């Protein structure tokens, strides 16, 4: 659980003031009677990580397939890498990389052969293809396994090879459809590191995931897709503030000060042993300011003040039609 006095975005989303890597207006897609995407709008700044969340069948993969030119939309407009998706799909294809839920890795040939095949598909000269292959295999810690059939690789290795293959074409925008599904925690963290490195190289990452923690860790902005529409979009902190359950925690070391504060502050939850008071708050600047002003005015000084926001699980359940808002505040501090 994030815990900070002033929740701030993890980093300034690169390109916030600049160009959009992907912009989408009114995107629609139906299969028969079923409307999968019911007019979605997105704007993803260049050099940022965007996470699309949603329950099974929400249409995440459909959105990725449309934006990566694998299927066409029924309506709406989209620009990817500055090119119009329907007018210039070739140019879009040249600027992007995609790794889907179903890997492009051919298990019958070696990791190195998979990479060289990719280099051929990108029409790289043989020498350049070998150079890029060696460099990427090294970068993704696959040099040792390079001459073994990919079918012998672990899930994490296959996923790394898949991303390495995507990078052969030096894409500026990468779509990662559930990149860590099925990976163990260590491999998942390795993958997160890889994604962070891609972004620090200026690549824009469009991620779909079932793991809210993953979106929370990686994404500059997150959108929750539900019933064919974007139910909410914002930074993780912004989304967490959308639903109730947040609080400000005041910790005291002096029992008398604690008692004074507890008496003066109504609607607080007390922990008399730890000398902690929890004041309900949405964590916004306005509410924090009024609490701080009130503390100053009454001369109460807490030893520590932390803001606790609901986590993304709470947000996800609330936005995607889970029963009620199953908020349960956890106190682990990152
Ligand atoms: N080719 C198709 N023909 C008919 N229906 C389809 C087709 N592809 C997807 N759908 C339907 O569209 C809906 C959205 O599917 P999609 O794979 O985009 O969801 P998702 O959010 O990626 O789900 P998951 O998290 O399970 O991967 C589902 O109901 C799915 O059954």
Automatic annotation (TrEMBL):
UniProt cross-references to SUPFAM superfamilies, sorted A to Z: P-loop containing nucleoside triphosphate hydrolases (SSF52540)
First-listed, main subcellular location of the protein, grouped into a coarse class: membrane
UniProt keywords, alphabetically: Antibiotic resistance, ATP-binding, Cell membrane, Membrane, Nucleotide-binding, Translocase, Transport
4Fe-4S listed as a keyword: no
UniProt xrefs under InterPro entries: AAA+_ATPase (IPR003593), ABC_transporter-like_ATP-bd (IPR003439), ABC_transporter-like_CS (IPR017871), ABC_transporter_ATP-binding (IPR050763), DrrA (IPR005894), P-loop_NTPase (IPR027417)
GO cellular component, one term: plasma membrane
Superkingdom per UniProt: Bacteria
EC number: 7.6.2.2
Subcellular location: Cell membrane
GO molecular function: ABC-type xenobiotic transporter activity; ATP binding; ATP hydrolysis activity
A Gene Ontology biological process term: daunorubicin transport
Keyword Translocase: yes
Membrane topology value: Peripheral membrane protein
One Pfam short name: ABC_tran
Domain ABC transporter, chain residue ranges per copy: 22-252
Family named by the database record: Belongs to the ABC transporter superfamily. Drug exporter-1 (DrugE1) (TC 3.A.1.105) family.
UniProt-recorded name of the protein: ABC-type xenobiotic transporter
